[in-house]
Amino acid sequence: MTFLLKILYTKKITSFIVVGLIFAIVISTYMALAINTVRGEYKIEELKAELTQAEKLSNQLRVNLATTSSLELILETSNNFEYEEIHKVTYLKKSSSSPFAQAQ
Question: What is the per-residue pLDDT across 71-103, written as a single tens digit (0 to 9) for each?
Fold first, then answer.
């Protein structure tokens, strides 16, 4: 009888060990998946923040480009060059003997 109880007790301990190992494997796998999911979420948030920053910079560059290429600014800059107005413009007249005069 004691031999039979000894075998049953040993099998009971072995089955507890096996169940415990399976439980530990399941829990550790769950924890690994949860950690990777949280890491992924933090990476997504970081990339969203970088994207928002890049969009803000892009909008600022568009505003700067529009400002610097505006017609008013170009006219104002050209007025600062102090050009003189041209009067009595005379152009060279083509000679009738010129080979270019025949082209027309």
Answer: 777 777 777 777 777 888 777 776 677 666 655
Contact residues for 94 (Cβ-Cβ < 8 A; gap 6+): 100, 101
Residue 65, domain member (yes or no) = yes
Give the CA angle between residues 51, 66, 60 to the nearest 5°: 25
Cα-Cα-Cα-Cα torsion 54, 56, 57, 62, nearest 10 degrees, comes to: 120
Q: What is the pLDDT of residue 94?
A: 66
Task: Report yes or no on 22 lying in a domain.
Answer: no
DSSP-assigned letter for residue 98: S
User: What tokens does 51 get?
Assistant: 């994207």
Q: Which domain holds residue 70?
A: 43-79
